[in-house]
Amino acid sequence: MGRFVARRVVGMLLVMFAVSVLTFLIFNVIPNGDPADRMAGKNSTPVQIDAIEKEWGFDKSLPVQYATTMEKVFTGDLVSYYTQTNVAEQIRRGIPRTFALAIGAALLWFAMGTALGLYTAIRAGRWSDTLVTVLALIGVSMPVFWLGALASYYLGFKAGLFPNGGYAEIGEEGLWEWVKHMILPWTVLATLFIGVYSRVLRSNVLDTINDDYVRTARAKGLSERRVMIHHVLRNSLIPIVTLWGLDFGAVLGGGAILTETVFDLDGVGQYFAESIGTLDVPPVLAVTLFGAFFIVILNTVVDIVYAALDPRIRLS
Amino acid sequence: MAPNSELLLDVQDLNVSFATEEGIVHAVDEVSLALHAGEVLAVVGESGSGKSVTAMTLMGLTRSPNARFAGSAKLRDLDLVTASDDQLRKVRAEEIAMIFQDPMTSLNPVHRVGRQIVEQIQAHRDVPDGEARDQVVALLERVGIPRARERFDSYPHEFSGGMRQRVMIAMALSCDPAVLIADEPTTALDVTIQAQILEVLKELRTRTNAGIILVTHDLGVVADIADRIAVMYAGRIVEQGSTDEIFYNPQHPYTWGLLGSITRVDRPRPTRLPSIPGMPPSLITRPQGCHFRPRCPHAHDACLAKPELIARVGGESGHTDRCVVTPERKAALRETDGQIGLVAGGVTG
User: Fold this and answer.
1) Burial status of residue A18 (CB atoms within 10 A of its CB: 0-12, 13-18, 19 or more)
2) Cα A213 to the chain's mean position, in Å?
3) Mean pLDDT, all residues of chain B
4) DSSP string computed for A113-134
């Protein structure tokens, strides 16, 4: 276990290093104007621009520029080329919004995906299975920006059931307001995943149900419910948990860009999207590292959980 | 077998068929069996003869939307064919338990072996965890698993095939069932382990008064454990009798063939192991009359009518068979076929 953790930590550092270098290089190739000029603003003097160039190392070679930028990432001094706001502060502001969206939606899609997957597998071939299958297909096919816009317009703006986007702080506006603001984003983000997860689980269950040990479980005189949950679902869920961990990591790291933007949650993902729009290298770099961190961490967690769920798998 | 011992299982004219895309598969056709307490009944036949489907049907494990059943299979007073799912669930493991062919896949890989047996005990009896654990350890010791208390917490993949089959036997025994069905319990194991598992089963029949149905394709396996043998072919029982009767006075040409394909150390070794020529028939389009007719060297016109399973040889042993040839003629044919059974293509003595 110790060796496993050590290897994973080293691997994570290497991945983050590679991600930061690549992001940095990509934005160096894309024409986006002189960064010092952009940072100094419209009414700047050559002296100001010079000072910024010196501070950020823009007059030096590329590796030096990378090093100074990364130093600022870790000291929290990184500022946007475009708005001159502190990047770390912006991300810190976005984290509760992004986490609220990610955790709520991930729980929702895991629960619904599992329930619908198990239901359709038990009802395989009947009309209710077909109905849910069609709904799942529709769910998978609807783009988030479209579904989100429709939900926001009809349920929010027109019907007035939900607020028209935005985020409510629990501390300021109370739990109920917060929930009301999150219901649509959670549902819209989860819809796609529910479709995928229910289909994957359905086929896993249908594979498992014919396994010999399920026949043994029946021969033991267990109730059908216990056979389904303790033997069939327990084994069918293992690949789903893996999938869930990876998707959850991506959303936690700001991957739900469309949902955050459509509902104006102003989380990390939306910050990322805006920064890309203005070719603002520091926030893009920082959010990319932020996202990579969660993906790598969740990958490790998934491996540990996988080994815990399936005793045939051993870490190392 | 003690005479007049309790009749545990009474199967009458059991028919099982499955609707498939190719047509209706008649897997079990008019099978009648009886099993008494303390008796070992071997059901012998090649793959696809319906022996496993018969066994599974007794456990209710063949129930599915495309399966059709007829006849009855009474376990004491309960008809296993018409029992509700709930009734069936209650007798499974408690009254009738099963050991499966492939121990490698019959245990759930993600649960500890001991827990899997405890689960069965607690499904039927209100036993606290600690007590159930002690019971399971005792069972594991009884079937010959060393260091049972430690092995309780092992996972199936940490056991060899033979050890897993012992776990399956311990599981089957855990609720003291009256009937134990062993469906090819040794087929997936190598020969030395086979012998050990058979020893466990033999020991078990002497210690408990359970009736055992041993399903196998290997007559060699049943010779010294079975009291009675039922030979199945293409869904039907073609011959049934005491082990001695089947081995020393076989009446059905198919049984002759089966006996002929056992390797025997007391006879000169043939260059090739004798086999029955031809293939078993399709269970969708079965031959008219006797199912063995197309492969039988002694078939004649009378074989086009369906033969009944009746006593044709004398004696009160209950020896029945489905071959219309008279016993005298059979005796003569057996002589000319030689003691090894049917003369198979390519066999030179």
Assistant:
1) exposed
2) 36
3) 87
4) HHHHHHHHHHTTTSHHHHHHHH
Task: Reduce the DSSP state of residue B288 to 3 states and report it.
Answer: coil
In terms of C-beta density within 10 A (0-12 exposed, 13-18 middle, 19 or more buried), how is residue B185 classed?
buried
Burial class (CB in 10 A: 0-12, 13-18, 19+), B26: buried
Chain centroid offset of residue B309 CA:
19
* Main-chain dihedrals φ then ψ at residue B154, nearest 5 degrees: -80, 160
- Are B286 and B270 spatial neighbours (Cβ–Cβ below 8 Å)? no
Long-range contacts of B115-119 (CB under 8 A, 24+ apart): B116/B167, B116/B171, B117/B167, B117/B170, B117/B171, B117/B174, B119/A220, B119/A222, B119/A230
Region label for B261, one of left (φ > 0), alpha (ψ between -120 and 50) or beta (otherwise): alpha
CA angle B87, B91, B93 (to 5 degrees): 140
- Check whether B86 has a pLDDT greater than 60: yes
- Tally Cβ neighbours within 10 Å of residue B207: 10
**Bridge partners of B33?**
B11
The residues on B that touch A, with CB distances below 8 Å, are: 59, 61, 85, 89-94, 97-98, 100, 102, 105-111, 119-120, 123-124, 155, 157, 168, 171, 175
Closest CA relative to residue A206, chosen from A127, A140, A137, A118: A118
Q: Which amino acid is at B319?
A: H
Q: Tell me if B258 sits within 8 A of B268, measured CB to CB.
A: no
DSSP secondary structure, B58-74, as one string = HTTTT--TTEEEEEEEE
Counting beta carbons within 10 angstroms of the beta carbon of residue A93, is it exposed (0 to 12), middle (13 to 18) or buried (19 or more)?
middle
Amino acid at B123: A
| Substitution target from A206, A207, A220, A228 for chain B, most B beta carbons within 10 A | A220
Query: Is A126 part of the contact surface with chain B (CB cutoff 8 Å)?
Result: no
Arithmetic mean of pLDDT, A190-202: 94
DSSP helix/strand/coil, B174? coil
Contact between chains at A212 and B123 (C-beta distance less than 8 A): no
**Longest CA span, chain A:** 85
User: What pLDDT does B141 receive?
Assistant: 92
DSSP characters for B119-138? HHHHHHS---HHHHHHHHHH
CB atoms within 10 A of CB B48: 19
Distance from CA of B97 to the nearest CA of A (A): 7
Please report, rounded to a whole number, the percentage of residues in chain B having pLDDT higher than 90.
Answer: 57
